[in-house]
Amino acid sequence: MIIRKLIVHGASYKRTINFNEGFTIISGEKTSGKSLILSLIDYCLGKSEKIDLKVQKELNAKCDQVFLEIKVDNETLTLNRGLKKKSDNIGIYFCSFENIEGYTPKTVKISEAMHFLMTKLNISEYKIIKYKKHSTNKELQTVSFRDIFRYVYTNQHALGTKDFLEKKTTFKSNKNPHAFRMIFNLVEADKDALKEELVNAQNKIQDANRVIAGLNSYLKDKDAADFNVLFAKSDRFKKNIEEQIQAKKKIIDNSKSNDNNENELYIKLKKDLEEIANELFNYQYEKKHLQLSINSKKLLLEEYILEQAEVDATLEINYKLVIPDQNIECPLCHSTVSVHTHDLVHQSTDSEKMLHKVKNEINNKISLVKSLITNELKNIEEIDRKIVRLSKKQGILNEAVGEFAKETDVPFLSQIDSINSLINRLVKDNEIVKEGLRIHRKISEKEKEIEGLETTVTRLEKELKSLQISDEDRNKIFDFLDDEYKGFMERLKYETDGDTFIHREQYIPFYEGSNVYAHDSGGLLECMQLSYLGAILKSKTQGYAPGHPGFLLLDSISKYVGTLKKDEQNEKKQGDGKSQELEQKSVEEQDGIAEKDKIKDPEVYEEFYKILIELSTNHQIILVENTPPEKFDFLYTKYTFYKGERGLIDDEKNEFNEVDEEV
Asked: What's the 3-state SS for 488-533?
């Protein structure tokens, strides 16, 4: 996965933050919105907590939603989430942000969006059994994208602390071992669960193919099967509409001297008629969509009824066994006794249970589809009533306009009427074409969905063939992780002759026999954590960590590292032309961190950057930092934020203002 851009958006404000596919640094002063960038990415990728708009006052004043454009393999997606309303939903556009106007988003709950991302990354969610809170009862919990994401995003309050991987939040940290196993494909899969997931994926492929067939049939009936032809038509309609609008404007400008009360009344009547015509068109359009939806559901219903009949037939055969008449010889008198047994013998087998389960699911689907069809038929009846009322009103107004026109001398209005009629016709024709384009895009989305499902089917079939993880494969993974982890620690000036490794049961890093939560030094913890995350990314490159999204988000790596002394910083900044405000205090003075927690070695700090740059050759790294080293700042810093009105929310960077200036 690659983060391509973040867009903060409001009624009058828009700003786009673009990211490099390799290494991106966002620098600047405190409270300028640097960390907010990572928080908003986290938010779009399913963070449960809302953005605190009481703290982020500038964001609250200017923006009400945020967009995140991502790339998964070769597919571009845009995620959308509200900051104030509908924050529990995520909208998914199957296109880049620039093209979202031509697409209808798939709006889902956060949990569904996380399942969607797992599917795109070709990773299976799986369930773990745990005890309910304050109870002896058990429940199933899902290990999903949010659990894996803890190995991607480390915020400034976790890096270098004992809250790494959200250790202090019990219900999250309990899932960390399971998330690690998912990342490295070490999960001991349940055969029945895999089979069920495989059947569900195959059924979804069939459903998607049915939808595609229905949509293609509709396009063929409407003579709209060629996307390129439709796109060219829509472009021509747009140009013609704009030409007519300009012609109308010119006539009105030339006719202002003829303006009088009668003209105004006539124009009002015509405007009312135009609004009614538009309403009628919208209702007809909505009715047509409902009819298409009903027809699609009827086809689906027929399929379900056929499946139901097949399951019933299978159950009938599987459920009854007739034992034929038998002649039994008495062992005492050797006489023959005829036994008639036509009783039904019930075979309680696993296959029957599965068939009954399938039958219940089909019955539920049939009931749901019938209910949806009934509701849509009621909606059509209501639309028909509205169309009748509006048509009557339209007839009355047409008659009034006709009588009024006989007694009013308004020669230019006939030209405007003609242009309005032409514009309305062009708009309606363009809407019909745009409807075809939307259906083509829907088909494209379904085809991409099928591609993803087919990949899932292939993976599940492969997992079914090799359910058990061999000790040899497991050892290869951990040997590689240990080598990379120790290699990074040595580069950060730590001896690794002692017990320095990644634990093979706890899945966390150790240094000199103690784990990452046992040490007290913040500087040591930060080095252990960054080395651990770096080792995981290197494993991804080698194919050992297929479940990791393949990028890192890091906030403030200088927190526990003494970079340069204050006087050295000031010497470097003299004469560089930057504002005096950029002369930041030393890290020690900035954060108030205890001296024992710091590594006062600028070489270690620079080595952090060298490691991140090396990792960014194959993976995306986004780093937020106050003052990066000058040599790296020049090459990799994409944005620099300042306090107040020159942070993330900056009126000078408002893209809506740029559009207004162009117009």
From this structure: HHHHCCCCCCCCCEECCCCCCEEECCEECCCCCCHHHHHHHHHHHH
Q: Note the pTM of the prediction, 2 decimals.
A: 0.64
Q: In what order do the strands lie in the sheet with 153-154?
A: 153-154, 551-555, 620-625, 23-28, 637-641
Grade residue 440 by pLDDT with cuts at 50, 70 and 90: confident
Phi first, then psi, for residue 436 (nearest 5°) are -60, -40
Question: pLDDT by residue (tens digit) across 573-596?
Answer: 444 444 333 333 333 344 455 544
Give me the phi and psi of 18, to 5 degrees please: -95, 150
d(C-alpha 18, C-alpha 281), whole Å = 41
The per-type count for the chain, helices as H runs and strands as E runs, is: 18, 18
| Beta-carbon contacts of residue 58 (< 8 Å; ≥ 6 apart) | 33, 645, 647, 648, 649
As a whole number of Å, the end-to-end CA separation of the chain is 37
| Structure confidence at residue 403 (pLDDT) | 65
pLDDT value, residue 335? 58
DSSP 100: G
Number of residues that make up the chain: 663
Q: Per residue in 219-250, pLDDT tens? A: 887 788 888 888 888 888 888 888 888 887 77
The Cα-based distances of 406 to 257, 399, 411, 577 in angstroms read 21, 11, 11, 75
Tokens of 563: 């970079």
What distance in Å separates the CA atoms of residue 464 and residue 192, rounded to the nearest whole number?
10
Pairing of strands 65-72, 2-9: antiparallel
Neighbours of 433 (CB within 10 A): 21
Burial 159-196 (b: 16+ CB within 10 A, else e): bbbebbbbbeeeeebebbbbbbbbbbbbbebeeeebee
Sign of CA dihedral 116, 118, 123, 126: negative
- Position 604 scores a pLDDT of 87
Helices (H), 138-225: 145-149, 170-173, 176-183, 191-221
- Identity of residue 453: L
H/E stretch holding 622:
strand 620-625
Q: Please, where are the H alpha helices in 49-175?
A: 57-62, 110-120, 145-149, 170-173
Q: Reduce the DSSP state of residue 623 to 3 states and report it.
A: strand
Average pLDDT over residues 78-87: 90
Q: What is the mean pLDDT of residues 184-208?
A: 75
CA 638 from centre of chain: 25
What pLDDT sits at residue 318? 61
Question: Which of 27-41, 123-137, 175-189 has the highest mean predicted lDDT (pLDDT)?
Answer: 27-41
Read off the pLDDT band of 203 (50, 70, 90): confident
Find, among 639, 572, 530, the residue nearest to 33 by Cα. 639
Average pLDDT over residues 263-272: 69
Q: Are strands 620-625 and 23-28 parallel, antiparallel or unpaired?
A: parallel
Residue 16 β-bridge partners: 7
Separation of alpha carbons 597 and 19, rounded Å: 32
- The 3-state DSSP class for residue 213 equals helix
3-state secondary structure of 571: helix
- Average pLDDT value over all residues in the chain: 80
The predicted pLDDT at position 531 comes to 96
Q: What is the dihedral of CA 564, 566, 572, 573, to 10 degrees?
A: 130
pLDDT for 138 equals 61
Helical (H) or strand (E) element with 441: helix 411-465
